[in-house]
Amino acid sequence: MTxxxxxxxxxxxxxxxxxxxxxxxxxxxxxxxREAFVxxxxxxxxxxxxxxxxxxxxxxxxxxLGVARGDRVGIWSPNxxxxxxxxxxxxxxxxxxxxxxxxxxxxxxAYTLRQAGIRLLIMAQGFRKTDYRPMIEEVxxxxxxxxxxxxxxxxxxxxxxxxxxxxxxxxxxREALLQFDDPINIQYTSGTTGRPKGxxxxxxxxxxxxxxxGEALRYTERDRVCIPVPYYHCFGMxxxxxxxxxxxxxxxxxxxxxxPEAVLATVEAERCTSLYGVPTMFIAELNHExxxxxxxSSLRTGMMAGAPxxxxxxxxxxxxxxxxxxxxxxxxxxxxxxxxxxxxxDPVEKRVTTVGRVLPHVEIKIVDPGSGAxxxxxxxxxxxxxxxxxxxxxxxxxxxxxEAIDEAGWMHSGDLAVMDEExxxxxxxxxxxxxxxxxxxxxxxxxxxxxxxHPGIEVAQVIGVPSEKYGEEVMAWVKPRPGVTxxxxxxxxxxxxxxxxxxxxxxxxxxxxxxxTVTGKVQKFRMRExxxxxxxxxxxxx
Length: 542
Known about the structure:
By secondary structure, the chain is α/β, with parallel strands linked by helices. Among the domains are: 19-32 and 41-179, Rossmann fold, CATH 3.40.50.980; 438-535, GMP Synthetase, Chain A, domain 3 (2-Layer Sandwich). The strands form six sheets. A nine-stranded mixed β-sheet has the order 3-2-13-12-14-15-16-17-18, sandwiched between helices. Strands 9-6-4-5-10-11-21 form a seven-stranded mixed β-sheet, with helices on both faces. Strand 26 (457-467) and strand 27 (471-480) form a beta hairpin. Helix 8 crosses helix 9. The radius of gyration is 23 Å and the shape is globular.
């Protein structure tokens, strides 16, 4: 009898039953003089003892402003060392840190401030060419909970000075009240779909996920992790910052925003042992014209996550970037985030074609999207996760929470997956992204993987667009490699005879870039909107 697509992570290592502040305190006691944080662009370096003292001061400054346990404190900023201090300071006083996307415009900002009930907003002056100051002034009057705004460039020193009015004993008394199941972070999700929802995460959620990911990556106090992914996302603040801190490793950032050459230079200068990124980041680094000028030999591992990884990209990262132990992670913000991960000693084929096996203390199953029944191994279905990582719920949105987490505690991902006999999971697409052409189910990732094997293609993304005849037709957006000219005829010929005729894209669009979220995820809903407009197509109604 074929086994069902269910498995759980067995481990002799227990879950951490402590708050983030308690965990940081233990790490500081073990490695007080080890380097904890480096911002190479600003010249900021902190040992673990210096990090603790700086966090302590920010925590007492926030208490002096009247921030209470459970208050929502927003942070609207690109990556910088103050972000890290605020992350740990809010955790130590029991405030709930609300991550505000650095790319937000005024309507999105106002929605987040109101929906989360943010009382204090800590913000940078701006990001890239956007000045945040007029934006916050525009929306401030529409956000009744917002009492105060702290600008890093103008108000930070005043916040630190206020710390002198709160004693260390008062901070310790606050920390003694905290429980590891307290909510500690709200992250707004669905940058690739519709209206954002605030995934509410606890100390227990994100601390344990970070710890076990760090264990899987074999982190020690000797590791130095380059984190070019944004802090506002789980990838940066959990898998980056917390995975380092739980193991005494060093957090390294190359700058406020992703720049491929800055990342390469930072890895070389800081002798980083691990590098993170979404696939588009690794592709940009590999294809940079000065890639060969940098010494990346210190790298051994890293993590690629946030979007499906092209197999060829993974192979190049392992070989050309000296990252033989690089891992692929799968998860979602609502699961803190990682549910499955490839291991450094997994067979190469498993590491480039799957997202690994279940993390310790986590359960996963794959179910029929219609009936909810667990499917046999080898059969496609929706991936669901249960365990310590599942969020408390969407902030102030019980209806959305019930829609995502069923009565048995399973978080439904919306991702289509398949589990093999050994428990390895492959992601084959999104339920909402699956294309149904004339009754045939088409999975975009399968076509994308085939197109990515073409020597002239740097990135390929496949979507479905409306068709009066078939319901949907296949469309491919293609970014050619530098200096390469491609035509629709070339690529149609490349596909003919190698993939089923009904899977061959009818429409081709050649681009220099894709619409992306700030974390580098391709926004396929925006691609569809653009395609429908440019092709003059009308949505098909039932």
